[in-house]
Specification:
By secondary structure, this protein is mainly alpha-helical. The chain contains 2 helices and 2 strands. It has helices spanning about 1-60, 65-90, and strands spanning about 95, 105. Strands 1-2 form a two-stranded antiparallel ribbon. A hairpin with a 6-residue loop joins strand 1 (about 95) and strand 2 (about 105). It is elongated, with a radius of gyration of 31 Å. The structure holds zinc ion. Zinc ion binds near residues 97, 99, 111 and 116.
Length: about 120
Amino acid sequence: MADFKEFGDKACNFAKNVADKANDAVEIQKIKAKIRETRHDIDDIYNSIGRSIYNRYKEDVVVDAEFMYACNNIDEKYDEIAELNDKIDIIKGCMRCSNCQSPVSPGDAYCSKCGAPV
Ligand SMILES: [Zn+2]
């Protein structure tokens, strides 16, 4: 009888441990999700610091030399995006003014924004 009770207690402990482990796993997943969220918040803050340095660079405010390379690199990336958008415009059959980059319609003789010949 004692053996059976002992077995029963062990089975109970085992069942409790499985339930506890499941609860622990759920709790750990919640905490990990909160850690990911907090890391994302930190990344947003880093991003904001970077943007404020880049904005200073664009406003010709002196930035540390160590940031100049990164700011130049960002400018190059914006240029790449502009070139890629131009490719999309060409595929779509859109044209842009060579002077001010405003969209112009095929057949326009002059840019409606700056007046440059198309
Ligand atoms: Zn124009």
